[in-house]
């Protein structure tokens, strides 16, 4: 349904983030999908960190194959589609703040969006933003070319990307489109959610422009952030965020089941009429098997 017709959730569209009166700090209750994402990210990071302690080569191998790594796509000619999901669960094992900052944002804005649109719609939005962020990073890397080329093998090296930032940017921008005037506290300063989202997108956009202009390298995957923001903003603005794809799939599956039963009943009636006219010996083996199957189904 259009965003203007969307049902209101526990987060209002008025001047305050958590209710009436002056804006104040409050901890929202964890919603189901957000909770699972937090647990998964912390669990994967614990394993990733332990691997880095055992040996750097093991951690590098995991990073190379489960990040969005243009080197794998370019040098192995492998469409590593799983990377568009798995990279969002890996974070820098040498910088705990990379994980903690992302999980803090996921906690606040993930619970907000999930409360507004429901768990299944939130999950689709989160992973859609994650995938588009990874894809945009991949394309940008190929356009820019490899950072280095091995003079002996000719293998090109590109910058991989890890982290949930792209998905979280999509969640923040989607929240801002749905509830632009919701108030949040940014370092104890109340601001509108649309201002925060616009500021974050502007920082990534102009940072990337400056990087390209100066020919420098950045350890921040701005294109992944922008891809996630594009997805979250587009689906919320167009109202696609309200489509429950799981419900549509279930409805379609039920329609196919009902149609299949109708066809079986019609064929059964035709075979019973044939038996009545010509006798049971007139049936082929496949027709007999069908009758046996229908007999078992109707017991």
Structural overview:
With 299 residues, the protein is mainly alpha-helical. It has two domains: 3-243, Rhomboid-like fold (Up-down Bundle), CATH 1.20.1540; 248-297, no CATH class. Helix content is 64%, strand content 4%. Strand 3 (183-186) and strand 4 form a beta hairpin. Helix 8 (193-214) packs antiparallel against helix 9 (222-238). The longest helix is centred in the last third of the chain and has 34 residues, at 245-278. The protein is extended and about 85 Å long. Mean pLDDT is 83; it is low at 1-22.
What is the fold's blueprint, element by element?
Layout: H1 32-54, H2 56-66, H3 70-75, H4 83-86, H5 96-117, H6 119-144, E1 148-149, E2 156-157, H7 165-178, E3 183-186, E4 189-192, H8 193-214, H9 222-238, H10 245-278, H11 285-297
Antiparallel strand pairs: 1-2, 3-4
Helix pairs in contact: 1-2, 1-5, 5-6, 5-7, 6-7, 6-9, 7-8, 7-9, 8-9
Number of strands: 4
User: Low-confidence spans: pLDDT under 50, at least 5 residues?
Assistant: 1-22
* Count of the domains: 2
> Which second-level CATH architecture of the largest domain applies?
Up-down Bundle
In order across it, which strands form the biggest sheet?
1-2
- The topology string of helices and strands comes to HHHHHHEEHEEHHHH
Tell me the structural class: mainly alpha
Query: Which radius of gyration do the C-alpha atoms yield?
Result: 26 Å
Beta-strand percentage range: under 5%
**Mean pLDDT, all residues:** 83
Let me know the CATH homologous superfamily of the largest domain: Rhomboid-like
Quote the CATH topology of the largest domain. Rhomboid-like fold
Count of runs of 4 or more consecutive helical residues: 11
CATH class of the largest domain: Mainly Alpha
How does the major sheet shape up?
Answer: 2 strands, antiparallel
Bulk shape: extended
N-to-C span: 44 Å
The oligomeric status of these chains comes to single chain
Query: Residue share in helices?
Result: 55-70%
């Amino acid at each position: 349904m259009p965003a203007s017709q969307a049902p209101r959730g526990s987060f209002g569209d008025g001047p305050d983030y958590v209710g009436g009166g002056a804006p104040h700090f409050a901890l929202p209750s964890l919603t189901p999908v957000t909770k699972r994402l937090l647990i998964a990210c912390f669990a994967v990071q614990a394993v990733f960190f332990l691997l880095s302690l055992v040996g750097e080569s093991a951690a590098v191998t995991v990073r190379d194959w489960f990040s969005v790594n243009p080197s794998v796509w370019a040098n192995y000619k492998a469409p590593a589609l799983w990377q568009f999901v798995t990279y969002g669960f890996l974070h820098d094992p040498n910088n705990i703040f990379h994980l903690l900052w992302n999980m803090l944002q996921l906690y606040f804005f993930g619970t907000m969006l999930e409360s507004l649109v429901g768990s299944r719609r939130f999950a689709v939005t989160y992973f859609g933003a994650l995938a588009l962020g990874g894809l945009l990073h991949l394309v940008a890397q190929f356009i820019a070319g490899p950072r280095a080329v091995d003079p002996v093998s000719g293998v090109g090296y590109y910058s991989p990307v890890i982290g949930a930032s792209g998905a979280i940017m999509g969640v923040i921008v989607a929240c801002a489109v749905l509830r632009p005037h919701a108030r949040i506290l940014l370092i104890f300063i109340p601001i509108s959610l649309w201002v925060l989202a616009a500021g974050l997108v502007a920082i990534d956009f102009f940072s990337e422009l400056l990087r390209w202009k100066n020919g420098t390298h950045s350890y921040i995957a701005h294109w992944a952030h922008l891809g996630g923001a594009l997805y979250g903003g587009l689906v919320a603005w167009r109202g696609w965020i309200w489509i429950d794809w799981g419900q549509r799939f279930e409805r379609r599956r039920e329609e196919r089941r009902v149609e299949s039963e109708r066809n079986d009943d019609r064929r059964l009636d035709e075979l019973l009429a044939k038996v009545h006219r010509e006798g049971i010996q007139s049936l082929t083996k496949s027709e007999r098997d069908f009758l046996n199957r229908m007999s078992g189904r109707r017991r």
